[in-house]
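Hi all, long-time lurker, first post. I run a small reading group and we've been trying to get comfortable going from sequence to structure in the token notation. Rather than ask abstract questions, I figured I'd post a concrete chain and ask someone more experienced to write out its structure so we can walk through it together at our next meeting. Sequence below, copied exactly:
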Amino acid sequence: MVHVREMDAADIEAVSTIRVRGWQAAYAGIVPETYLDAMTVEADAGQRRQRFSRPERKSRDLVALGDRGPVGWICFGPCQGDVSGPGLVGEVYALYVSPDLIGRGIGRILLGEAHAQMKGQGIGASTLWVLRDNQRARHFYERAGYQADGAAQEDVYDGITLTELRYQRVL
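-- Answer (accepted) --
Happy to help. Here is the structure in token form:
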């Protein structure tokens, strides 16, 4: 069983480990191997410390805690794109669970708590971006009530262009 709380600075190393290992597991065969192999927990933690300490930061970070400490992380906040919805629109920027614990409901718990907090802030809809070829994540978000809304964007990883699809749901 896990419980969710606000992330604090002491969680940065664990969250970076979850994120880097999550990328390497979830995006194997999608994102170029050279890009995934170059990712390090240390570099991610350094960038996360900088972002986390900014007083103007509008994002919220939650961690799921298990018996070994943080086992999942979600980051969300105001929508960063041009999206219409019922009232204010929020965005899930990132959601990762320790790869060895995927499928145990931790992601669903984190997403549910993020949705509850967004609703508590008067946000009526949530968006997120997911790689088109990440079928497992797309299926997860669809089960959570998200639907692709037709928007797409491209990102380049080590010279390879990958397409992300935007998903949206009413909260």
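A couple of things your group might point at:
The beta strands are 3-6, 60-66, 69-78, 88-97, 123-131, 147-157, 160-170.
The radius of gyration is 16 Å.
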